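I hope you will forgive my troubling you with a question about protein structure. Here, with my thanks, is the record as I have it:
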Amino acid sequence: MANKKVLVVDDSATVRQQVALALSPAGFDVVEAVDGVQGLKLIETTEELRLVICDVNMPHKNGIEMLSEAKADGKNADLPIVMLTTEGQPALIKKAKEAGACGWIVKPFKADRLVAAAQKLTA
């Protein structure tokens, strides 16, 4: 069986690398985007994408804007999108959930918890 594809959208190369280092050994193929504009493009063009892990604060298009636009396209209605961010304000979390986010992980993250969430959401 092929590995499950996960898109990581974060303007920090270090964070993208940390997520890939956590998920790759667990059998995930990690695709990376540097901002919400590129992330949205990859959501539309990547075949068999199973999960998106997305930062909130990014240049060009933030994570919640990207999430809203992705979910506005009906074909992405079932695509799980998890926010991975340093932000923890309840109002921002509520806004993300209303836009369609299925989870919220605060950085710095624990690799085992990220892997467990990815496995659960792609099962």
